[in-house]
Amino acid sequence: MFYEIIVISPQQLISGIKEYSQDVDESLIKNAYIFALEHHGTQIRDSGDPFFSHPLEVAEILISLKMDQQTVIAGILHDTVEDTPATIKTIEKQFGKEIADIVDGVTKLSKFEGATLAQKQAENFKKLLLSAAADIRILIIKLADRLHNMRTLKYKRKKSKRYHIAKETIEIYAPLAERVGMSSIKDELQDISFQELYPDIYSSIKGRLNQLYESSVEIISHITSELESIVKGLGIDCSITGRLKTPYSIWQKLNIRNISFEQLSDIMAFRLIVDSVPQCYQLLGGIHRKYMVVPGRFRDYISTPKNNSYQSLHTSIIGPLNKRIEIQIRTKEMHKVAEYGIAAHWNYKDGGISDENNKNSKWLKNLVQILENTSDMGEFLEDSKVEMYTDSVFAITPKGLIISLPKGASALDFAYAIHSDVGNHAVSAKINGKPMPLKTVIQNGDQIEIFTDPSHVPSSYLENYVVTIKAKSSIRRAIQGIEKEKIEIIGKTNFYEFFENRNLEISKNDIKFILNTLGFERESIFFYSLGNGALTLGEVVSVYNKLKNKTDEVFAEDLKNPASKQTLDIVGIPETPILPVNCCSPVPGDKISGLYFPGKGVEIHIVGCKNLLEKEASSKCKVIDLSWTTSAFGGSKKYTTKLLITMISQPGNLSKIAEVIEKKNATIVNLKLGEKIENFAQLQIEIEVADSYQVTMIIAAIRDLDCISQITRA
Fold first, then answer.
1. What is this structure's pTM?
2. Can you list the domains of the chain with their CATH numbers?
3. From the CB of residue 634, how many other CB atoms can be counted at a distance below 10 Å?
4. How far is 271 from 268, CA to CA, in rounded Å?
5. Any idea what the Cα angle at residue 101 is, between residues 99 and 102, rounded to 5°?
6. Which segments of the chain have a pLDDT < 50?
């Protein structure tokens, strides 16, 4: 079998590194080259190329980013452990622990590559963040690896596989590249993904851009010439480049502004690179004096850099030939950071990030801190996507500290950015000296003062007022803590009341014996399990009987639940504990059935509930007929039920729904926003009602609202 000759040689890699670094161990690079070549052997890629060409292309990308030789070597070796018999121990022995650790980090990530389940994608993202926080070079190799894989994506035969990889790339890897400042990689990842996901739209925009470019060559040359005359008049040394924007960036503009291609005017961008910061502002002034400025389009990212350390002056003008163009002005150093991002900060001598205050490192560390306290990786991934995609606003504390937040962040986000405790206890805010609600969206340059109350605790509805991962996770964690405490108290109260009502002694040693027998390490977990129904009093009493040498029959009567019929006006409930369910929420008027679990209790479901039907087939439970008593209707007692709503995601729609519920004399006790899909949002509302008739009237009234797509009972 014959293979095409590999173009990239060890000497080319060595020469590439020497262009920006003299710290080169030629023999080590050659050994890595030979090691990878021998181990990948006759492996072939989907493109038909030898597999070994892939790690070499990755190494070339890393050299273009001016990475140190350890990173380049790790790039050459990054697939050997995953795809060949090579081990991390072998790599450590031949190339050292530093390179082995980097390869190990990339390998752990690759094991989840191409996962189709959202949970695996979330776990992959988790591993990526944890590995990148330990060594940012792992993230840089992963981005280089993904870039080359995207360049050869067209060779994968399965369309579904290509689609999944492209979607994962545009949702996770491209935003990550932007978040760490690597704009050139971000642009290419977005365009290739866009071409795969929306081929017709891509072809249409690309075709129009090609036509436009052919007719614009002279225009770009003319505009460049005029800009050069301004630069010459100011006596500034400056390089000028003009270009048409990428298909994906144009598609984003069309979507955001809801306009057609013909209506889009600012598709030309010119970049002016000078030597110093004063020259940036001097040149900006010269251009603004010469041409009309488009209002609201000036951004000063030099005085207030983006979160990814990007710095530049952005302005839009009505320029030569009456063309609307975008202009970016920056220094050479700023341009280096804009192109290479976090890689531009790499210190080859010290083997680390040269800028100790690098915002990208802080951002990763903050994410990892939040990650350590996150139980739902799916939610974390979705929140991370939102935060990575957004631009930044800057707000100021009363002491003058500047805090950067995603665009759309609220005063409550600002409070959580200061500290989780400040956010949890925040009750009001002053923005630019005026009292404002915590949900107020921050504008650039706002000075914000937060007022707290130590007794205040957050509620779930506050999640609607924040956009940052830190705020969302802090609110969820605080609520979980509060709910857990409540459930623990319920379990503890039920436990002691059971024994006190029967004049039975229960000592600390007795409780310790019960905990050890049932496998609980702490009382708090034991009482929490009792409170949420995971553990029943029947199981506790069974252990107590053994401890006191009593038979289970002695306590058969004690397991009755005398309050069950008083609490729920239902005929047919066995006198046994009522077990909580998380599926349906019956109210008087609903047809109901019970699932009786001997020795544990009974669950009450609406007839037709999916869980009822699934559990009915189980031999572990028995279905019993239940019905509401006449006293369940017309009284003052309220019952809780849930509504699932899909609505148009627009400001004010939530208020319309709340207003309908209030007019129908029901009370909202809990509210949770779910997944957002395009322009729609899912909403779960828990309400207190008297009966099913009231629920029917509420559903009918909400369904009549223009903003509602779908509404059902949970």
1. 0.56
2. 10-198 (1.10.3210.10), 200-344 (3.30.460.10), 639-713 (3.30.70.260)
3. 10
4. 10
5. 65
6. 1-5, 111-117, 348-351, 353-360, 386, 389, 552-566
